[in-house]
User: Fold this.
Amino acid sequence: GQEESVFHGGGLEYAQSRLYVAGDPVKFIDWKVSARVGKLFIKEYQEPKQIPLYLLLDTSGSMCVSSQALSKYAWAVRIAAGIALAAQASMTPVGLLGCGARELHVRPTLSRNLVMEWSHKLRMHNFLEETSLGRRAREVAPSLRRRTTVIVLSDLHDPDAFAALKVLSQEHDCLVLHFQDPAELNVRGAGIFRGVEAESGRSFVGHGRRAFVDSAEWQRELTRFGIDYLYLRTDQPILGRLRHFLNRRGLGGSSAR
Assistant:
């Protein structure tokens, strides 16, 4: 909502005054300019272009597992609600799509009450919930009739997510906030082992010194397709880095890590 439009009308911020034309609303008459010039002038205001914002929030079980006071899920819910309220304050409609097993879809709206409602619902979680980030990203894409900003909040445990986000980024502005718990970075003394991803059923071979999700690989692949990426560990300060990332991006800066 902060992007300026080339059109003038009944917006929020004063843009200019022009000569009165028959049929113009009387309530927009600029009386100070009219009195000074001796002719009727009309106030025109800047109309912001409303670029909708969609939050794709991963509600799967792996987001809830934590070795810290706040889990990845708790951080993601708090950040999603904060971004939503800040965006609405700038007249940006905000929608939410849950990317787990539960059905949670809120269309873009300026209602702060709806944000408080879905953020309250998200306080409840299920440790057995599967991820659906890739599938939900594909499902929402056809419903986006105009260019939209999409923010993904996830631990990226869905191997199908990258391909779906790559397609989504061709038409829309995408950002990924990647949450990771330090317990995911290694399994001490585990050696080489075979495993199965609980959410997707995908088999993998791992070892104790390798992270379950490689943040460097995700960043490299996502930024290749113009998707801004921020890596957030739950055992490190988050809000300062997130604020810096969003501020830089709002000024047209590149992605930060």
Summary: The chain is about 30% helix and 25% strand.
